[in-house]
Structure formats: C-alpha cells, structure tokens
Amino acid sequence: MALFSSVTPVIIALICICLAALWSSRWKARRDRKVETEDRVNAKPWADEDLRDETELAVDEKAGSFLNDDLEVQHIPYSPQRYSEDEMIRRANEFYHLMNARRSVRFISEEAVPREVIDNVIRTAGTAPSGAHTEPWTFVVIQDPETKHQIREIIEEEEEINYMKRMGKKWVSDLRKMSWCTYPWVTRSSLHDWNAGLVTVTTTPLNCGPRVRVLLGRPENEKLLLLLPVGYPAKDATVPDFKRKPLDEIMVSV
Amino acid sequence: MALFSSVTPVIIALICICLAALWSSRWKARRDRKVETEDRVNAKPWADEDLRDETELAVDEKAGSFLNDDLEVQHIPYSPQRYSEDEMIRRANEFYHLMNARRSVRFISEEAVPREVIDNVIRTAGTAPSGAHTEPWTFVVIQDPETKHQIREIIEEEEEINYMKRMGKKWVSDLRKMSWCTYPWVTRSSLHDWNAGLVTVTTTPLNCGPRVRVLLGRPENEKLLLLLPVGYPAKDATVPDFKRKPLDEIMVSV
After folding, report:
1. Closest chain A C-alpha to B61 CA, distance in angstroms
2. Do A140 and B192 touch (CB under 8 A)?
C-alpha cells in the first residue's frame, strides 16, 4: 500500500496488460468435451494453469475456429542479420549493461510522457511470441485520473484483505518492510519502457483482477495479468541498494 | 514432435530456465501455518498459481529467513539517463523495429555459439525484476549431446501422451498443422538471444517438468518453466508468413 499511496497520485500512464483467456477457454472447452475420463489436473497445461481463477468462462463456440483461419499459413525463408563473433559478444555485453542499470522504480514524476512512446512500447510488446500466434493480449492504457483513482481504491481494499486475512502476520510484516512485492516474471514492457527512458514497476495486485476488469469494461474472457505504472522517475526517486546474484549463482552448465 | 525431431539433433545450446519455487513454497508454508480457515483458492496469489504442480514440496524452515536478510536494505538515489522527447520517440521506434523482426525459429544450425554470448544472455536474464528481489531462478545451459537427446526423448514421450490422451483429437489435429505451440508469455531470453544474432523458440513442454528436473539433477523446489533451444538459424530456416495484429487491435485507451 505504501507503493500505491506514493505512486498513484503521480502516475502518468498506467498500463494494464490483460491476457485474453481465449486460448485457455478454448483449450479447456475442447478438453472438457473430448477427454472425460482423464484426470483434469494432469491434463492442465501450464499456460492454462497460469490463467486459472474462480471465473467460469462461458464457452464461445465460434472460438473453435480460431486455429483454422491460420492453418494453411505459408512458410517463407528467414535469414536474419548475422553478426561476427566479436560483434555478437559486443552486442550481448552492451545489452547486459543496459539492462543491468534498469531498476524497478516506485517514485514516478507527474510529467506527461509522449503518447507516441507509449504506443511504440505497446507495439513492441505485441511482437512477443504467442502459442499458435494467437496474440492473446490486450493492453489498456489508462490516462484518465478518475479511473486511476478507482484502480488505486480497488487495490488498497484488496490488499488490506490480503494482508489482514489471506496471508500470515509474519509474511505481511516482512513484506511491509520490503515495500511492494513484484512478480518474478519478466515483462517486455518494463524493458521497453526502460529503453525509452521511462521507468515502471511490475505489479500483480492479488485478487484485484475481476474488479479492475469490470471497471475497465473488459470482457470475461480476459484476465488482468500485470499492472504497470509508467512514467519518468521522480527527481527524488530512490531504489534499494541491493546487488544482483553473480552468474555462477544463477547458471548451471551440463 | 515435428519441431523436436528437426531441431534437437542440431541444437547448439539448450537452455532450461528453472524458476525456483522457493518463493512459492515459502509463501505457501506461511499461509498454511497461519491462515487455516481461509479459503485456499482465494488465498492463492497468482505467482503461486503459476508454479502449481502435483509435486508436494517439503518445507525448508530456514527458508523463512530469506526476507530478513534484506530487510534493512538502504535506499539510494536513482536518476537514470534522461533523453529528449525526440530521442525517446526515436529509441522506442527503433526498438520496435528491431523486435518486430524477431521471429520464433524452429530450424537451428549446428554451428557452435560463442559461450561468452550465452553467458551474457543469462547475465541479462538475471537482471529481471523479482518479488522482494529474491531472484528465484536458475538457468541450466545444456551443451552435452546425450543430455539433450534424453530431454528430447522425455518430451516426445510426454507429447505422445498429451496428444493421444490428454487433449482432444480435433485440437491435436489443429496443433499438428500449426507445428509446435509456444507459450504466450514473453521471455527476456528470447529477446536477448535475438539482440546478439541468435534465434530461439519459447517452449513449455507439457508435463515434462519433473522428469527433466530429475535428469538435470535439480532440487525439488525448482520447476521447469521454459525450454529454449538456442543457436544460429539454419541456412534454410523458414517461418510462417503471418502478420501481427495492428496497434488498434491490441490497445485500448481509457
């Protein structure tokens, strides 16, 4: 809550990424219809698990045709640019240093961000790979102050419940001292923002998905995945002075 | 299976990304101990859901202290480089065009890749944000041909079961024509490989996690998240000739 208290009033552009659960619901529908004796837990692919929540999705029968449209996609030759080994090493090293300077920032300036940059960030996020090229995502850009305020209220209410009831006291106490907790996943968007000189922090507010979805008027087959406050860093922005694990602690070779 | 038949013999470096479920298991352990009356489904945060599988994790009591180590981390000022608006727009546009040229490639050359590049790709992946800066990941780089062969066998066996039993026939038939199905999530690694001139395809083989984990000698608190074959594209590599959705189909403004 400390995060949202400090950040929300000054959010320039709040981006919600909703992953449409079309993929999931179609998959589920097919499986339910055809695999009746199979254990459901085993049958559930990871991509499906990720999208699980309490919402029961109505099955859209038309959805079954989504693959057929692309079934006969032609293949074309692909020969991307090839670099010399020295150039590869240089580029990989340069990119590492760029990304290593990226930090999650919770203090965001009130300055307006060029809309063209946000558009390109989202265009870029849209180049992400997706299963069977379904591109199952919607990015909701929120600039309206009232909507941002309402999202903040939803998050604060749910967090209060999370902290007080859903989690243990010790965990909450730890978490508070650590400030906000972010998602272990990596988002392209945070990287893209960063490349353009903006900052963000990856958040996945617990249990807020359905209410935020309704607030934004998004359909039931979409799930809130990420909520990214985006903007310039505030002049007095600070970050925790931590170190990253060295390579030998995160890499194993076989 | 078509993918793995063609790709596996020529894989140069196969990278498994295992996300250590320490986060998840600690969270779960705390909750189980302290929140007994609460509905478990509601209590489950998304990050936890993502890591769910059938493995029951032993609770490491020492794990409870993982947050305390960092509790008193100092904050330091953070003022990253600021670009002019024109420069921001230029950089965002340039990055979009670079990423828009990226494709998932299933045909990989046998040529060796400079190890220094792989190391830097993993260093870069390690700069991803994580909840409470836990950096809960291990990247396993597999160059040993026998291990790669065994992984291929595991995947083919499980896929056979997936296709024949776990999914419906129609879906399987669609999927076959579409070749392999990739994860809707975005990985930094695929982006990093691409930046260095390498290609990959994001795969999340269904139900293979525990067997691959055991093969690689990884502990029970880790889950296989992604399996990325990495290398130069083959000379005759092809990709489906698809288009991406335009911005107005993936973006909504409020």
Report:
1. 14
2. no
Q: What is the largest CA-CA distance in chain A?
A: 60
User: For chain B, first and last CA: distance in Å?
Assistant: 43
Identify whether the C-beta of residue A131 lies closer than 8 Å to the C-beta of residue A23: yes
Contact call for A33 and B232, based on CB within 8 A: no
- Chain A residues close to B96, C-beta within 8 Å: 120, 123-124, 127
Q: Which long-range contacts (CB under 8 A, 24 or more apart) does B67-70 make?
A: B67/A174, B67/A175, B67/A177, B67/A178, B67/B132, B68/A174, B70/A178, B70/A240, B70/A242, B70/B132, B70/B133
Burial label for B155, CB within 10 Å (0-12, 13-18, 19+), is buried
Q: Are the CB atoms for B100 and A215 separated by under 8 Å?
A: no
Question: What CA–CA distance (Å, rounded) separates A40 from A17?
Answer: 28
pLDDT tens-digit series, residues A124-168: 999 999 888 989 889 999 888 899 889 888 888 888 787 676 666
Q: What ipTM goes with this model?
A: 0.72
Tokens of A76: 């074309």
Spatial CA neighbour of A128 closest among A70, A185, A59 = A185
The single-letter DSSP state of residue A240 is E
Cα separation, A171 vs A168, whole angstroms: 5
What angle do helix axes A115-125 and A188-195 make, rounded to 10 degrees? Answer: 140
pLDDT digit of tens for each residue in chain B (254 aa)? 444 434 443 444 455 454 444 344 444 444 444 443 333 333 323 333 333 443 333 333 343 344 444 456 899 999 888 999 999 999 999 999 999 999 999 999 988 899 999 999 999 999 999 888 989 899 999 988 899 889 888 988 888 787 676 666 555 554 444 333 333 333 445 566 667 789 988 888 778 888 998 999 998 888 888 888 899 999 999 999 999 999 999 999 98
* List of residues 6+ apart from A112 with CB closer than 8 A: A12
CA-based nearest residue in chain A for residue B132: A181
Name the residue among B166, B136, B188 with its Cα closest to residue B15.
Answer: B188
Residue B133's CB is within 10 A of a number of other CB atoms, namely 19
